[in-house]
Amino acid sequence: MPAEWLAERGHQPEFGARPLRRTLQTQLDNRLSNMLLDGTLNPGDTVSVDVADGELAVHLAPKAEN
Predict the structure, then answer these.
(1) Which of 5, 42, 48, 66 has the smallest count of CB within 10 Å of its CB?
(2) How far from chain centre, in Å, is Cα 1?
(3) Is the pLDDT of residue 17 over 80?
């Protein structure tokens, strides 16, 4: 589960929420930004995140055409 994966990697009680935010940024925000820039991710697409083989896995469902 992504929440547990993030908690394991981003939990450092002495620093508050900063390590969790940094983990989200490096592991998810950067990947989604790159997907937007290279055209893989488009407005209206749906992204889901899971954990596979110990890493975050991003799954893309393109926007359904009407």
Answers:
(1) 66
(2) 12
(3) no
